[in-house]
Structures are given as structure tokens and as C-alpha cells.
Write a structure and sequence with these properties.
By secondary structure, the chain is mostly helical. About 80% of the residues lie in helices and about 0% in strands. Helix 2 packs across helix 8, helix 6 packs across helix 9 and helix 6 packs antiparallel against helix 11. The chain is elongated and about 60 Å long.
């Protein structure tokens, strides 16, 4: 097999082609043949990188989340306290909206497939679980350092994730309806003020 079909650029072409096909036709109506045709590659090139259509579908989710995970970790490490970290993370929403722009069909496909396929569900729900834990630990840190009152991390973490996901979905469905990044930043600020130790 030639380097043209085995390198990272080829894998990226397949992912881009799959995203286009899934967004346009839906997961069920898209086959490996359609992905290969869109990418201009053979099925051999496809199967060198992915064992199945499902694998490329899940790789799309992983690719989109990888940048967000890196940024969350970086921001939390560079912030002076938990409240500052939460505000900085809310500011990342502009990057999220930019990278997700035009991706509503793919987001709906992820959620739709997760309702029918246990493997897709497990992979799709994992980031939500990870982010709930991440924000829970951040709130615990804020309580320990005295930035927040004795807030319940198990309750506040899911609320933060629900706020972010809800605003992201609104932004994808109605991009001109508001400055959704500003809406998220304002919402996070309200939560921070509610948990602030001086309140």
C-alpha cells in the first residue's frame, strides 16, 4: 500500500469526507463506498485506517473533542483560582462555536445514533461524564481554597455541563439569535457569584 493511502493526511481526508457524508445523508444512509468516493480513495485505504463505518464516526467525535480537552487542561492549569479558571473556560466557548460552526447535522447524528447503538452511546456519553467530573473537581478546589462556599460539586458539575451543552445547541440551531459565547460567559458568571464565598 502506498504512502499516499497510509499516512496521517489520508486519515484526515477520510474523516473530512465522512463528516461531509454523515452531515449530508445521515449515518444510516452513508456507506464506506460513499466515504471513499468523497475522499477519492479506495476501500483498501479506508480499511487501513478504520475497521468500520462506526469507527470513523466515533473518530470524528474524538477529533472534535481533542482540542477542547487540551484547552480545558491548559486554562485550568494557568488560572490563579477556581473562579478565574471557570471564567477562562467559559471564554473558550468562542473557540468551540467557531470549530462547531455548521456542524449541527453531525451533532444531531451523534445524539441520534447514541440512542440506538450502545457503543456509540458509550463513546458519546463519555465526554459528558468526563466534563461533569472535571467541573466537580474544579468546584471542590474552589471550596478548598476558599473561593467558593461549601457548594456540592456533584450537583454543580452537571449544572455547568448542562448550561454549556444547552447554549451550544441553541448556538448551532440559531447562530444569529444571540452572542451565544457572551450568554454562556454571563451564565457562568451568575453561577460563580452564587457560589462565591463572600455571598
Amino acid at each position: 500500500m502506498s504512502p499516499r493511502t497510509t499516512g496521517p493526511e489520508t486519515r484526515s481526508r477520510l474523516l473530512d469526507a465522512a463528516a461531509e457524508c454523515f452531515a449530508r445523508d445521515g449515518y444510516d444512509a452513508t456507506g464506506v463506498a460513499e466515504i471513499c468516493a468523497t475522499a477519492g480513495l479506495s476501500k483498501g485505504g479506508f480499511y487501513h485506517h478504520f475497521p468500520s463505518k462506526q469507527a470513523v464516526f466515533l473518530a470524528l467525535l474524538d477529533r472534535w473533542l481533542a482540542l477542547l480537552d487540551e484547552q480545558l487542561l491548559l486554562v485550568s492549569q494557568q488560572s490563579g483560582n477556581a473562579a478565574e479558571a471557570m471564567r477562562s473556560i467559559a471564554g473558550l466557548s468562542r473557540l468551540v462555536f467557531q470549530s462547531a460552526s455548521g456542524q449541527l447535522p453531525m451533532f444531531l447524528e451523534f445524539w441520534n445514533q447514541s440512542a440506538h447503538d450502545p457503543t456509540v452511546w458509550k463513546t458519546t456519553i463519555a465526554p459528558y461524564q468526563r466534563y461533569r467530573e472535571f467541573f466537580g473537581l474544579l468546584i471542590e478546589t474552589g471550596v478548598a481554597e476558599g473561593t467558593f462556599r461549601d457548594a456540592d460539586p456533584k450537583a454543580a458539575g452537571p449544572v455547568l455541563v448542562a448550561l454549556a451543552v444547552g447554549i451550544l445547541l441553541q448556538g448551532l440551531m440559531d447562530p444569529e439569535g444571540a452572542d451565544w459565547s457572551a450568554v454562556l460567559e454571563h451564565g457562568v458568571d451568575l453561577l460563580i457569584r452564587g457560589m462565591h464565598s463572600e455571598v
